[in-house]
Records
---
Amino acid sequence: MKIGIDDIGLSVPQHFFALEELAERHGIDPQKYLVGIGQEFMAVPAPDEDIVTLAANAALPLLDDASRASIATVILATESGIDQSKAAGLFVHSLLGLRADCRVVEFKQACYGATAGLQMARALVAQRPHEKVLVIATDIARYEQNSEGECTQGAGAVAMIVAENPRLLELHPHQGRYSLDVSDFWRPNLRSTALVDGKLSIEVYLESLRNAWQSYRADGGLGLEDMSFLCFHQPFTKMAKKAFSVFEAIEPEAAKALGEKAYSTSQLYGKAIGNCYTASLYIALLSLLDNSDEDLTGRNIGLFSYGSGSVGEFFSATVVPGYQAHSRRKAHARMLASRTRLGHEQYSNWFYGDNHPAVADYSTPYVTGGAFRYGGCEGYRRQYESTALSLKMAS
Ligand code: COA
């Protein structure tokens, strides 16, 4: 049975901040961010956007009557959860008008959660092939202002429909997993910004990749020479180069044959969006599918997912014939090209201001041009609404 990604969509906030300007504020050489970290812009959510609106915006274009009727599970993965108890996916399920006999659950493991979601989706489809699973990775990456992590912030969501006989990517059965209890990045309850030991997180990421690769090979996975592309979790896009250096050390001949082009196309979206935690790997995958000028039909892609704390997983997929007909690349290009650049003050107010205060009742200003917006809280109950855009898309 062939199971995999049948459709995939991206959503990013409509505003961004340039890292060149952040470097100026920090009084450092912009080349450190542009080249050393490999980031140009960070996506900045408006006060009426959050992980729910990003998730719903990413999934909406994937839905028609048939897919709405066949989605039996929604798995939303996030590091930036909005409630200690209720799954954020329930708001998304409601905004998208999905059927009531559907299970909805939230997955958490730093940046790794969506990969667990994808594997669970694969198993569910194997069990019940007439049903589909909607997996959404959605996050706002937020570090303390003026910290080393600030340049690696970002926001965005990727929605994927997992189904039998997928139209885009067939997932392979082989899995390489590696878990290690380590404090390289974490966010204690009541903190809105993550704590991170950046250098340690890079070390553990690379160790996790080495071990997950070995585990994948031991599980019967493809050799590096059978792969055409590699997509890595990219908290900042330079990380893909660091990850590739693991293969240069352990599989030098195959890595040399692949060269930098194995991962360079997968870096394009990440450079313009920034870290999106759970969504970052899938943004790398979309970047490759949307921007490659080669015909990818039948080509194998290796993927490495990493979530600090830590869990790593290596898996692979083959691009399905006819995938181009189902690409959303034009819509994604339009979305990125139509964004508005923010100055430092506005970025700072939106990322670090008290836009979502810890009080029972507040409302947010109307800013977003997306299909859904976060309106604030009433008695601590989060309020979401459809905008004119979603009504237009539905008609
Ligand atoms: N021109 C070009 N490159 C420059 C430069 C300049 N003027 N100045 C510095 N660099 C390079 C450095 O050589 C380094 O490259 P390398 O890693 O290939 O050696 C890179 O820029 C980063 O410099 P560094 O001094 O290590 O940055 P930092 O101490 O500010 O920390 C992170 C960088 C990524 C650790 C930090 O941003 C962070 O903690 N991020 C959040 C956590 C994270 O993303 N972890 C990843 C794994 S999950």
---
Amino acid sequence: MTNQNFPNSNSALAVIILAAGKGSRMKSALPKVMHEIAGRPMINWLIETVEQLNPEKIIVVTAPDMGDVKDAVAPHQCVIQKEQLGTGDAVKPAMKELQGFDGKILVLMGDEPFLDLADLQNMISQDGLSVMAIEAHDPHGLGRMVLKSNGTLDKIVEEKDASDEQRAITLCNAGNFCFPAKHLGDWLEKLNNDNKAGEYYLTDIPAIAAKDGVETHVITAGARNVWGINTRLELAEHERMAQIMLRTRAMQNGVTMIDPDSVTLSWDTTFGQDIIIQPHVFIGPGVSVGDGTTIRAFSHIEGTTIGQSTKIGPFARLRPGSSIEEGAAIGNFIEVNRSTIKAGAKSKHVSYIGDTTIGEGTNIGAGTIIANYDGFYKHKSEIGKNVFIGSNSTLISPVVIGEGAIIAAGSNINKDVPANAMGIGRSRQENHNGWASEYRKMKQNQKNKLGKKAVK
Ligand code: UD1
Ligand code: MG
């Protein structure tokens, strides 16, 4: 059967990703598939791989209260499984969206972010039904592949339902199937929940298909330490794998890491060449780093564009919406938030720069604070080119400091300063000659009279 929504449909592919499970082993209020690996939800890693198969449709199955999953997978479609009755039941709401589709349907587990594209292509290229298997180092929690004496699949047994002998099997179900669309609806109707978990298991389908004379091809993916994410430990293991992959790619492309294991990157971090990253640097999503930049130890960077030949840190914090342009320097204990530091500008010691543009060649003295928040609103300030801000100054936003201006150290500035003017906003100093010696004398007399007792 063909349908006008699915042209050439008998060779076409649709993908269903199951993501409605409670994820109770994660002990979390967040849907399992929204837990992040290298800064993005695990389901988005899987979707990136699946998109490369160019399917007609990708349909994600979620539970009723998972609006954030819907947002994360957009523009792909979400359907809702009202009650979480098992992986077999979860496929059913997606089938309603595939009426008339006559190609292949790949059903994937949303908690397996690192599927290999070639393994999926291999599954799709098989006739009939195929299932992915893995040789697991630790098969705990996985379904076991029970083979016939001729090596073909007899059935899949979930761990909860397995005998001791079946539990000893290390060839496990990776969870992913490729079905001929024309049979899948019927096979799903034949599932029952007569098992220890009381769930409709997708894994019962190979045995049902065999009765219709459809063999299941087993595609074995490479051996893995862990397979799928059911617990926080497995999440951490996937994070470790992602970090190794991201660091390797960065180093292959010209980044030096003195201690790679202590550097955290994000899925979308981009680097130029000849960048040096010192130990203990965290890079969150939305960061790009230009050629020749050095990021010193213990810096925390998110959502920031870093230009060429800049120096960042040690102990710098760059927050989203920031840009550090060519040759600029951000030193220790500097927080930059939604701000632009233009070419060659410097802020090297203990400062907060929020909602501000800092002009080319400007120098921000130690301890400068831009007071951008009045308790209700955030305000913007602009500091021109080649300005010098003396140490321990507070700029109360919004202010505009003109090109070439100098701000005297220790100033509170709440009015604009014209170009090339000196802005000073501090109380005047007075010196009282001899006052200190008089004071010491007076205090010493008091102590001689009262002894060491505290004065009331
Ligand atoms: C499943 C397989 C197991 C396999 C393992 C591999 C079944 C019955 N078991 O077990 O053989 O070794 O994956 O990772 O298929 N989900 C729903 N609705 C539900 C239940 C689950 O959408 O009612 C989704 C979950 O969100 C998850 C996926 O299906 O993304 C797998 O569910 P999960 O509970 O993690 O199954 P496993 O116990 O890992
Ligand atoms: Mg799982």
